[in-house]
Amino acid sequence: VQLVESGGGLVQAGGSLRVSCVDSGRAFGSTAMGWFRQAPGKEREFVAGITWNGDSTVYGDSVKGRFTISRDNAKNTLFLQMNNLSPEDTAVYYCAASRYSTKIDGSEGGYVFWGQGTQVTVSS
Known about the structure:
It is a single chain. The chain is mainly beta. Helix content is 0%, strand content 50%. The protein has strands at 2-6, 9-12, 17-24, 33-38, 45-50, 57-59, 67-72, 77-82, 91-98, 111-114, 118-123. The strands form 2 sheets. Strands 2, 4, 5, 6, 9, 10 and 11 form a 7-stranded mixed sheet that branches. The protein has a 4-stranded antiparallel sheet with strand order 1-3-8-7, with no helix packed on it.
């Protein structure tokens, strides 16, 4: 099992960025997935989650209306499109594979596999 994030980087406030996560060696297409983030000195925070088939999504309050989670099961890939970024979005972004297929859990305990993370830095 391996989750590998990519696409992080440095962006100016108001800009956009898309991060991706490729899942190898497991049943990606039957598993709900999520994105979390952790800023320096803060606890890891739920960003967004999506069911196995993409029919349902949930977002954290701080990113609603700006971020969009999606997935391509044919390519075992999870995406997070981030628009109108602000310095408060600066964090390491992690993708995670849920223990569920149709339930979106906003807590870390609902996820069994994690990627190594990708850094997103938003300058003011």
